[in-house]
Amino acid sequence: MRKILKVENGFTLVEIIAAITILGILALTFFNLFGSSMLHILSSGKKDEAITLAANKMESIYNQQISTEDDIKTILNDGYYIEECEDMDSLYAKPNSDLYRYCIDGDSDGFEVTIVCFYQEGEHNISLTSFFRKE
Fold this sequence. Notes:
4 strands, alpha+beta
């Protein structure tokens, strides 16, 4: 009589389903981390862009001879999405889109200029304030 040898090589269906489930959970976790990292990187880029814009505006004012408030307005109004504000309350009011606003407070010695740049559809902002002496 012959003995039938039964050789079991390979994986069972239950083992394969368990392995696929574990790999799926790991992949999902990895993609969640990757996605939130990408959002953070994009947010940081928009913030850096707003800071650079505000700093460039301040540098433009600094490099010019300023004697009147109109001199500052001429430098700042160069085609970007810009609004002039009369008071600090309206300076920080949430806009409908990305733009920058400025407020100029002058006295006999010079002008205090505040520039507020909004980013991420106006949800966040940065502000720079500097004092410029009259020439």
